[in-house]
Amino acid sequence: MPEPRHHATRPAGLLSGRNVLVIGAGTRPGDDPTAPVGNGRAVAVLAAREGASVACADVSPSAAEATAALVGEEDARGLTVIGDAADPGRSSAMVAEALRELGALDAIVVNVGIGLGTGLADTSPQQWERVLTVNLSAPFFAAKYGLPAMADGGSIVFVGSVAGLRAATDSPAYDSSKAGLFGLTRHVAKEGGPRGIRANLVVPGLIDTPMGRQASTRRASRSASFGRIPLGRQGTAWEVAAAVTFLLSDRASYITGQSLVVDGGLNAV
Question: Is 4 within the bounds of a domain?
Answer without folding.
Answer: no
